[in-house]
Write a structure and sequence with these properties.
By secondary structure, this protein is mainly α. 72% of the residues lie in helices and 0% in strands.
């Protein structure tokens, strides 16, 4: 019995779920409302990331979030690597083992999740930086 993974890739391309296929389709059949929707989704995702601790620790200005610069994105990417390194070296803190799994306020402050949040924010800010109509610094 063969693997279904190649079939999923074919299906994803056909449906438009594959990233490159999606971008190809977006540029070929350019409709401003699609681009506006995509940019809005990036904004929604950025607003759903808990960032006060990242902003404070990395001294990220509001301007750098609104109009992302390369330094901010690189700082977040480096921070992600450092947090994952701390997670590997120090192991999972007790909060991951003993806390209520629904208590995301504590869990999100662990090295692992701080790294994940920094990674997600860096990727989204990179998209924001490269979006049409965005002023880049």
């Amino acid at each position: 019995m063969g693997s279904s993974i190649p079939l999923l890739a074919v299906r994803d391309r056909w449906i438009g779920w594959h990233g490159e296929t999606f971008l190809e389709k977006l540029t070929q059949d350019f409709i401003p409302s699609k681009l506006e929707w995509l940019i809005k989704q990036v904004e929604v995702q950025i607003n759903q990331i808990y960032i006060p601790d990242l902003v404070d620790e990395l001294e990220i200005s509001q301007d750098s979030l609104t109009t992302p610069n390369v330094e901010t994105i690189e700082s977040l990417a480096f921070f992600e690597l450092e947090e994952f390194k701390k997670h590997r070296e120090e192991g999972a803190p007790e909060v991951l083992k003993t806390s209520n799994p629904d208590d995301w306020s504590e869990i999100s402050k662990t090295f692992l999740y701080r790294g994940k949040r920094a990674d997600a924010l860096a990727k989204l800010l990179r998209i924001r930086r490269n979006s049409p109509g965005t002023q880049t610094a």
